[in-house]
Amino acid sequence: MKEKTKAQDICEELGLKLTPQRMAILGYLDGNTSHPSAEDIFAAVSRRFPGMSLATVYNTLASLKEKGKLLELTIDPAKKRYDPDTRPHHHLICLDCKRVSDIDRAFDLEIPDSLRNGFQITGNHIEFYGYCPECKGAAVKR
Amino acid sequence: MKEKTKAQDICEELGLKLTPQRMAILGYLDGNTSHPSAEDIFAAVSRRFPGMSLATVYNTLASLKEKGKLLELTIDPAKKRYDPDTRPHHHLICLDCKRVSDIDRAFDLEIPDSLRNGFQITGNHIEFYGYCPECKGAAVKR
DNA sequence: TATCAATTTAGAATTAATCTAAATGAAAGA
DNA sequence: TCTTTCATTTAGATTAATTCTAAATTGATA
After folding, report:
1. pLDDT digit string (tens) for B94-120?
2. Residue A42's domain spans which residues?
């Protein structure tokens, strides 16, 4: 009997067809903590799957995001980054190389009504910034 | 004796020439809490100053940002937003209309070395998201 | 196996942002 | 005040990310 992959599980759960392109994208994202951009995903998946379209990457990301299986991070000024870990957590971005790293820790961010400006708050995300181990040394010169 | 505007003060402090375009942009930004995009600024300033170029807006924003007189916010997925209030503070974004509101409150966001992943952390920014007073009602239908 | 709707595809279109090179103009010195 | 100079402005081209379009393909179901 064939093993079922996580990618297959996800597609079935979401009611999406099991296409090879989708399997490859989901396989690449599974457990991936590099917070890749659409272009990164396209480059990686294209290597094993030549001829695929960048549009397919965007289509698949849109479906996953819509169904809550993927976070779209607005943290890199140049482009969107994606995170398959949808549990609440925060991020650390290197100001130099833009590497994004996870911060798995909860913070108490209660806000009194008086500061909410009438908003209904549904979530939060902390962006820590600084320099990654590789860029830290070079940062001295700045 | 002529009064000196804040815009003039800033230009002198930064060693920038006092051009009418710059004065208009700085005047528009002074005390502005709407977190405008470059396009917003261009639209507003063009009204009083027809014929100016969008490139001038980008040039001026780049100068101000570089000199630490302006924050570039990476909070709206569609475009950069700018904030003339450079004191540390956080933001609240409406998921519907993308309105951005200030949260003037300090949070204790100490991170133990063990969670820093080798990064040198230099700052942080919290993005709260939810629905603004105007969009809150409509949110029920979602 | 036939059907049908979902998906993929290439490429065009859109949009934000940056770049370029020529024209302009603010400011400092003569 | 007049010159000179260099920063700034400008229009338009360019780049890069993302979205859209319409035709071809294909997975899933009957």
Report:
1. 999 999 999 999 999 999 999 999 999
2. 6-73
Chain B interface, best mutation among A98, A120, A122, A140, by max B CB count within 10 A: A120
- Note the pLDDT tens digit of each residue in B41-74: 999 999 988 889 999 999 999 999 999 999 999 9
Backbone angle region of A117, left / alpha / beta, with phi > 0 → left and psi within -120 to 50 → alpha: left
Out of B73, B99, B125, a domain closes at: B73
Q: Which of A120, A77, A39 is nearest to B37 (CA)?
A: A77
- Asked if B76 and B95 count as a contact pair (C-beta separation under 8 A), the reply is no
Beta-carbon pairs below 8 A across chains A and B? 116
In CATH, what number is assigned to the domain containing residue A24?
Answer: 1.10.10.10
Sole residue written with tokens 């890749």 = A36
Q: DSSP letter string over B27-44?
A: HHHTT--S---HHHHHHH
Nucleotide nearest to A53 (CA to C1'): C9
What residues of B are in contact with residue A130 (Cβ under 8 Å)?
119-123
**CB B59 within 7 Å, strand D:** yes
Residues 6+ apart with CB under 8 A from A59: none
